[in-house]
Prior knowledge:
- This protein has helices spanning 16-23, 26-29, 64-76, 86-89, 92-100, and strands at residues 3-7, 32-36.
- By secondary structure, it is of the alpha+beta class.
- The N and C termini lie far apart (62 Å).
Amino acid sequence: MTKTMVIEPVRAFNGLDVLMALDEGLFAAEGLEVQLARPPVAALTPAAFQLSRIKVKAPEPVVVEDARLEWEWMASWGILHGAFDAAAHINAAVQDAAHTGH
């Protein structure tokens, strides 16, 4: 019999043990289905963000692998849907023009 456990989202450092156990399938091995609670976006407030961690830097070309990982992360939260497609999601012509000044 499978039991479902819903846990609050965890910060990567504080919940590393939970995230690793989830990734390694240790909960499933014990018959537990773990779901991360997803707060509604409207529930987010400025206090939910650490503004000191936001860094401003000069724009640079998109690293396709980074874009794919970020897409998959947002898709896992239900923010984006479908598979990542670099040709469809990264406009190379606009990017090239932005970085060459033409």
